[in-house]
Amino acid sequence: MIIVTGAMGFVGRHLVAQLLRSGNPVRVLVPPTIVARYQRRHYPWPWAEAGEAEIFPGSIFHAESLFQAMQGVHTVYHLASAQWWGSRHDLEQIDLIGTRQIIAGARAARVGRIITLSHLGAEPSSAYPLLRVKGQVEELIRSSGVAYTIFRCGVVFGPDDYFVNNLAMLVRANPIFFFQPGHGEHLLNPLYIHNLVAALEASLESLGLVDVTVDIGGGEYVSFNEMTRTVMRVTHAKRVIFPLPPYFLRWLTGVANVVFPRWPATKQWFDLMAGHRTARLGNLYEYTGVRPVRFEDTLVTYMPQRRYSLELLRFMFRRRPGIRF
User: Fold this and answer.
1) pTM
2) Residues 135 and 178 grouped into a single domain
3) Are 121 and 252 within one domain?
4) Within a 13 Å sphere around the CA of 185, how many CA atoms are in the beta-carbon half?
5) Residue 322 scores a pLDDT above 60
6) Is residue 282 one of the residues assigned to a domain?
7) CB contact set of 196 (below 8 Å; sequence gap of 6+)
8) Which residues share a beta bridge with 56?
9) In a 3-state reduction of DSSP, which class is residue 119?
10) Are 116 and 151 in contact (CB under 8 A)?
11) Shared-domain flag, residues 245 and 307
12) Less Cβ crowding at N or C end of the chain, within 10 Å?
């Protein structure tokens, strides 16, 4: 049995579907409040509605339910995180404290391995909150006494991602200008979601990926400026790119997050652009046998049909998620 935390998130939804397609028994840890909400309605996830995955009401903050959820489990995919919407406090609560709880539950239930995601550039001493918290999470898992695999990956993109799609929404926020942090020269290594979940699945059977931390990314390096221009070209939204100091854009983003219930960017969003976030180009295939797809070739399959102006309006006034894992 495999258990997945954070299964309602971007990566988690795709991973559960991939594991089920391959015939793996999957248990999904879902907060009781969410289970109660959908008792009389259809689940929004096809694998849940079809009854293919076992839905276990529980929380990473509730030790007893977590221990029960891990009975008979050999692998934990720990994906619960507040990285795309949470404050620094949320990151510390969900990513740090949540990971401590997962480790305690895994040790008590004698789980074989924990597989988790981190970010390229994560370090416990990083000056950037997201990368610092992810680095601390890595240290917790490495010293847990449980076998582990940590994937440090580049920016993950796909039809429902929270980085490239949010970038497309930000482009639509101003009809003339796009405010870019600095000159956008830092390199990113975007990784397509289907490539990532294929790599996560492949790690199940790979002994070479036990007790290691590996850097993976897509098949090319793209600067943030190039990424922005690609998104503009694919979505037919021409804007004048206007560079602003990163610290000033962080401040503006903080103001926007106060004014609106949600904003496509958060302060942590900028942490991923504060330096080069790249892995060696051959790592993904070398470690997992997965061949990455190209960034723009994938965007053109779904972005031109999207109405990002309307999505921006819906996103801005949608309620921010709370700590409910």
Assistant:
1) 0.91
2) no
3) no
4) 3
5) no
6) no
7) 11, 14, 151, 153, 156, 216
8) 29
9) strand
10) yes
11) yes
12) N
